[in-house]
Write a structure and sequence with these properties.
The protein is an alpha+beta fold. 22% of the residues lie in helices and 34% in strands. It folds into 2 domains: 2-221, P-loop containing nucleotide triphosphate hydrolases (Rossmann fold, 3-Layer(aba) Sandwich), CATH 3.40.50.300; 234-356, RNA polymerase II/Efflux pump adaptor protein, barrel-sandwich hybrid domain (OB fold (Dihydrolipoamide Acetyltransferase, E2P), Beta Barrel). The protein has a 6-stranded mixed β-sheet with strand order 6-7-8-3-9-10, with helices on both faces. Strands 13-12-11-14-20 form a 5-stranded antiparallel β-sheet, with no helix packed on it. A 5-stranded antiparallel β-sheet has the order 15-19-16-17-18, with no helix packed on it. Helix 3 packs across helix 4 (134-146). Strand 16 and strand 17 (310-316) form a beta hairpin. The protein is built from 8 helices and 20 strands.
């Protein structure tokens, strides 16, 4: 549905986007994820036609977009601010874009009602824009975009103004809506959990470049480099030295975990003998009482943070430069482990991800 080929965008000496290439399939929920200033919104605006590439090409549904203005593209955009007209009611806001199509009034009304039903706002067509909650305004913005029946819906951080609970509810609703209407959604977000929970695939971006494109599980469990790993949730990093390597696995020596053999990622790039191992906090498990594991490390709890259903334990392990972060559910009693207590942690070798140092 969307083909982005070697697209760059420069503003004077500053390169906002650097040689980006992507293929986004029809009916896919695709997210552009990265920190502020990484180029994700610039790329979204160029797909929409609000900005022009310095070089490279963008096609939508097989048609090159060069020279085609935003209002002639088979795309529509939902902005972070929603841009709801305060002097118009819900139905008038939704119908705004339809006016240029000069549809019969009955057809216009039918399409507005259909769009409101899609976003669960049926019966609110006469309500004033100023009488809506934040979640309702967001839905009106979605309905106004969907009523135009675009082939691609572009979403520029549309949930960022909502509180945590409503944001989580709208994430579920957005995903349900995308699956119901079946069109391609492209979401820009800096929230890794939002991207992981909603997307079919994710492009992680830094400094105007695309670092990795993959399904959420692949990006989270097998990040292509330390930068991606660190951005997507917590990650413990352990320095290592390569002692053996083949096409499928890599064996390293560490001062904390000892000698470890783990799978070799496809994207692994060797840089001498130095390497880095990464392991997620939830992949480290507390060993209680006399339980043992063929793969374990010992240390001391130096801090802990209680988060309701889980506790983050900060564990100092001899030989490691930095303490390990461990996430443990509280139904096992992790919230009762005192600071200063000795602790043993189990891990699976396949949870250790090898990355170039």
């Amino acid at each position: 549905m969307i083909e982005i080929s070697s697209v760059s965008r420069s503003y004077g000496a500053f390169k906002a986007l650097d040689n980006a290439s992507l293929s986004i399939t029809k009916g896919e929920f695709f997210s552009l994820l990265g920190p502020s200033g990484c180029g994700k919104t610039t790329l979204l605006r160029m797909i929409a036609g609000f900005d022009t590439p310095t070089s490279g090409t963008i096609s939508v549904d097989g048609q090159p977009m060069d020279g085609i203005p935003a209002n002639r593209r088979p795309t529509n955009m939902v902005f972070q601010s929603y841009a709801i007209f305060p002097h118009l009611n819900v139905a008038q806001n939704v119908a705004y874009g339809l006016k240029r199509l000069r549809l019969p009034s009955a057809e216009e009304k039918r399409r507005v009602e259909e769009a409101l039903a899609q976003v669960s706002l049926s019966g609110l067509d006469a309500r004033g824009a100023t009488e809506l909650s934040g979640g309702q305004r967001q839905r009106v913005a979605l309905a106004r975009a969907l009523v135009m029946r675009p082939k691609v819906l572009l979403l520029d951080e549309p949930l960022s103004a909502l509180d945590k609970k409503l944001r989580e509810q709208m994430q579920v609703e957005l995903r349900r809506l995308q699956q119901a209407v079946g069109i391609t959604f492209v979401l820009v977000t800096h929230d890794q959990y939002e991207a992981l929970g909603m997307s079919d695939r994710i492009a992680v971006m830094f400094g105007g470049r695309i670092a990795q494109v993959a399904a959420p599980k692949e990006i989270y469990q097998r990040p292509v480099n330390r930068q991606v790993a660190d951005f997507l949730g917590g990650m413990n990093f352990v320095k290592a030295e390569i002692v053996e390597e083949n096409a499928a696995s890599i064996t390293v020596d560490t001062t904390g975990f000892g000698r470890v053999r783990t799978d070799k990622p496809q994207a692994f790039v060797r840089n001498g003998k130095a390497a880095t191992l990464g392991i997620r906090p939830e992949r480290l498990r507390v060993l209680w009482d006399d339980a043992t594991s063929p793969h374990e490390v010992s240390g001391k709890v130096v801090d802990r943070h209680y988060f309701g259903e889980i506790t983050h334990l900060i564990v100092e392990v001899p030989g490691l430069e930095k303490p390990l972060s461990v996430s443990e559910t509280n139904n096992f009693g992790a919230d009762d482990i005192p600071v200063g207590a000795p602790i043993r942690l189990a891990y699976d070798p396949d949870a250790l991800v090898a990355m170039a140092d």
